[in-house]
Write a structure and sequence with these properties.
The complex is a heterodimer. Chain A is α+β, with helices and mostly antiparallel strands. Chain A is 51% helix and 18% strand. By secondary structure, chain B is mainly α. In chain B, 57% of the residues lie in helices and 0% in strands. The chains are: A alpha+beta, B mainly alpha.
Chain lengths: 773, 54
């Protein structure tokens, strides 16, 4: 599917030459919030060779952050240009992370050529380094804040002068005094516009140069024309000057833009977690039989890997020595560890619970199953990057309409007023000022910030800027089992069959093992005084044997604990989580464990179903526990034993049926599904990469935040639509006045600030809504 | 109306003073971590422990 999209883009690339996916209107905020910081970098340290990494294959590699990306066509354009450079073997650009990796043969000096090539295409770049990224983000923030402060200062002072002028119109103010006030206003407003308007002017200019328009074009036009017109009026002693309106407009819009930039920056910093997932070093045995530690990127297929007990396995491979138990939970979502012996395959990212293992490496880094999952996630995220936010969708209609009305006003006045350009231009400027998109540019970020803040107080972290909008559209929820519907912690099921003394004895042995069941036993015996176990031995794949109080005690599998006893006692099922304790060969005692459901899982599922949201369970675990959980919480539709790619396929299928799927999951195996869902939610205990892929993280044991988050997302969407309706209604009243040339600066100022206040106050309602429990 | 000759510059000066203060704070890094400060105040351990009594 991705391949088809890119091909489609390429066609457009060669015919249209600009970004086809984004259409005529590109995301205003996308380009404006990051004033070309990378260009600064290019000026200060032109040579990126310090960031060039030497690869052991003999080549060089360089990671770059690319700015100003707006659509998939940009990717093709940049990658082609870089690949055309001599010696470059790989150039891969990720749209959602804006990260590009280039690999080439030859000297590190080529890094400079690469940087210059991409910069020459109009995309500023910076070598990728999370530290640098943070710093530049901060710089962009500071510029926005400074612009906001200057605009705020100017707006308040010009407004003071304007109030004097307006009241002067009804009293005895002379024309001379009014002109003086206009001049003072100009003195404050013009430098302020020149400084604070830059984010808008730059973005508008960039869009125009590429042959498109964005939201910043009408804004820039309105501000510049209003200022220019007012200056002309002031010089000729005219009565109407719009200085207050133009700086006020800038101030309101900058508030919105700053809030939006903050939300985006927050989302981005959380996305940088991916890098930390890589293990830093691996232990290998070389040809001479020496054990040594090497950096992860030097690990190659064919090497002998040594995996100590409790260590994560660094690469995919085959076990050559040792026998142990492997916790594959991160990959498969299974609760129980699996036995692994010589000849078995093991996968990167899994955890060795038992004895040390020797592993012959067969695949490393991107070729591993883990690497495959990371790639699936990135692919799915690129699909999501195509989501167009509500405000931008509205802008696509809004911008052309505004321009047409303003132009029509100008032409109409010229036509019917005997070709006088001055009143015609005044009326057109008034239209531009009146229609300026405060509701879009201010109200949407305010709703976003208020919703994010409200959710944060309820323990839900909003990770992506447009996640709330996407969540509000969801009508289907897909759950993972382990760690999502359940708490992910195996706990002992209380039973009359095992006495306290048995539990204490079992826990005394269990304390010597890292096995999940043993740890659950130790947790269950918390608070009891444990007897001392001596001579503890772990029999691999069987259990533990020790001497407690002079008696030989065995803890482990049923057939091993009491091999000579008759038939296995009833209730011993294959898929059941259980362990047995036998003291001196006596009749064994059975301990049964289960993965505990989250306390309110059942109610939450019922609440979802009551809202007509369909619910499904897809687990990587085996059939029996999956069915049990599905029945316990009341989910009819469930799938067991699903691989990560199967989860993605199922979600894609649901999406193709027209559903908007919310994925709720925590495991590494859920990460691709999380990224491909229309929206996604993870518990804060989820694997790093899943947290990265999810739009929301919730804290705590209850599942209830899911309901609250959906509720707030929907209410936020409702308020955004209300604000649009308000804005349209207000334009409906004010625009005819402006077209008729009746909108004096006073009316423009009142209309603009009152509509901004109205939408902002409406947005704040979200905060004071009572939580429904 | 001669009083305007003093009042307008005085008003502008005060406004500029506020603006300068804000820009100084911005440059000084006061706005770098808006959420962190709210959390830090709940921290029991002082970040710069007072110098021990001599």
């Amino acid at each position: 599917m991705t391949a088809r999209v890119i091909k489609h883009d390429q066609q457009h690339l060669f015919t249209a030459g600009c970004c086809p996916l984004s259409g005529l209107v590109e995301t205003a905020t996308e380009t404006a919030v990051r004033p070309a910081f990378a260009a600064d970098w290019a000026r200060e340290t032109a040579d990126p060779s310090a960031f060039v990494k030497r690869r052991d294959a003999g080549g060089q590699s360089l990671s770059l952050m690319v700015e100003n990306l707006s659509c998939a066509a940009c990717i093709v354009k940049i990658e082609r240009a870089v690949l055309a450079l001599p010696g470059v073997s790989k150039a891969r650009l990720n749209m959602s992370t804006r990260r590009m990796v280039v690999e080439w043969q030859g000297s590190a000096g080529l890094g400079l050529d690469i940087v210059e090539t991409v910069t020459g295409l109009g995309y500023p770049v910076a070598p990728y380094n999370p530290e640098i990224l943070r710093k530049h983000d901060d710089k962009a923030h500071k510029q926005l804040l400074a612009a906001m402060a200057v605009a705020g200062f100017a707006a308040s002072n010009v407004m003071l002068l304007s109030v004097a002028i307006w009241s002067g119109a009804f009293s005895d103010m002379t024309d001379l005094t009014r002109t003086l006030f206009h001049w003072v206003s100009a003195l404050i407003a013009l430098p302020a516009i020149a400084f604070a308007g830059q984010p808008f002017f730059r973005s508008a200019f960039r869009a125009l140069r590429r042959g498109g328009v964005n939201m910043d074009v009408p804004i820039s036009l309105a501000v510049l024309m209003a200022a220019g017109m007012s200056l002309y009026q002031t010089m000729h002693g005219g009565a109407h000057a719009y200085f207050d309106a133009s700086v006020g407009l800038l101030f309101f819009l900058l508030i919105g833009r700053y809030l939006d930039a903050r939300a985006r920056a927050q989302a981005r910093t959380t996305a940088e977690h991916l890098i930390t997932l890589n293990a830093l070093a691996a232990t290998i045995t070389d040809n001479q039989g020496q054990t040594r530690s090497i950096p992860m990127d030097q690990l190659k297929p064919g090497m002998q890997l040594v995996v100590a007990s409790g260590q994560r396995i660094a690469a995919d491979g085959v076990i050559t020595s040792g026998r142990s138990e492997i916790d594959c939970g991160l990959l498969t979502g299974e609760t129980m560890p699996v036995d692994a012996a010589v000849g078995d395959r093991v996968y990167a990212g899994t955890l060795n619970l038992g004895n040390p293992l020797g592993v012959r490496v067969e695949a490393v880094a991107a070729d591993t199953l883990l690497g495959e999952i990371v790639r699936l996630v990135e692919m799915a995220e690129q699909g999501r990057a195509k989501y167009v936010r509500i405000a931008d969708r509205a802008a696509r209609i809004y911008v052309p309409v505004v321009h047409v009305i303003a132009a029509a006003t100008f032409i109409g006045w010229m036509w019917f007023n005997g070709g006088l350009w001055e009143p015609a231009l005044m009326a057109a400027v008034a239209v531009l000022i009146i229609t300026c998109p405060c509701a879009l540019a201010l109200a949407v970020p305010v709703v976003q910030v208020v919703a994010t803040g409200t959710l944060l107080r309820r323990g839900v972290v909003v990770k992506s800027a447009d996640g709330l909008e996407r969540l509000a559209e969801c009508d289907y929820v897909v759950f993972d089992k382990t760690g999502t519907l359940t708490s992910g912690k195996i706990a002992l099921t209380p039973s009359a069959a095992c006495s306290e003394a048995d539990l204490q004895t079992a826990a005394a042995l269990a304390g010597h093992s890292q096995h999940p069941l043993c740890r659950a036993l130790v947790r269950a015996a918390d608070g009891f005084e444990l007897p001392l176990a001596s001579d503890v031995r772990e029999v691999q794949g069987r259990g533990l044997v020790a001497i407690v109080d002079g008696k030989s005690v065995r803890l482990g599998r049923a057939d091993w604990v009491c091999p000579t006893e008759g038939p296995v006692p009833p209730g011993a099922a294959d898929d059941c989580l259980e362990t047995w304790l036998s003291i001196d060969g006596a009749v064994p005692v059975r301990f049964v464990f289960s993965d505990q459901l989250r306390s309110d899982a059942r109610q939450v599922i019922a609440a979802l179903q009551a809202q007509n949201i369909r619910v499904e369970l897809i687990s990587g675990d085996r059939e029996t526990p999956t069915r049990a959980i599905a029945q316990a919480v009341g989910i009819g539709q469930w799938t067991a034993g699903a691989l990560p790619a199967q989860k993605v396929a199922r979600i894609r299928h649901l999406a193709s049926l027209g559903h908007r799927v919310l994925m709720v999951g925590d495991g590494l195996n859920d990460a691709p599904a999380l990224a491909s869902g229309h929206a996604s939610l993870s518990p804060a205990t989820a694997a790093d990469i899943s947290q990265t892929a999810a739009d929301f993280l919730f804290q705590g044991e209850p599942l209830r935040p899911l309901i609250g988050t959906i509720e707030i997302a929907r209410r936020a969407r409702r308020i955004v639509w209300q604000n649009f309706a308000l804005a349209i209604a207000y334009n409906f009243c004010a625009v005819p006045l402006a077209v008729a040339g009746l909108a004096t600066p006073l009316i423009a100022a009142i209309a603009m600030s009152s509509s901004s206040l109205l939408v902002t106050m409406n947005a704040l309602r979200l905060k004071y809504h009572r939580q429904q429990d | 109306m001669e009083v305007l000759v003093y009042l307008i510059p005085a008003a502008l000066f005060l406004g500029l003073l506020g603006l300068a203060g804000f820009l100084w704070a911005l440059r000084n890094g006061q706005f770098e971590d808006l959420d962190g400060a709210a959390m830090r105040i709940l921290n029991e351990d002082p970040e710069d422990p007072p110098a021990p009594d001599r």
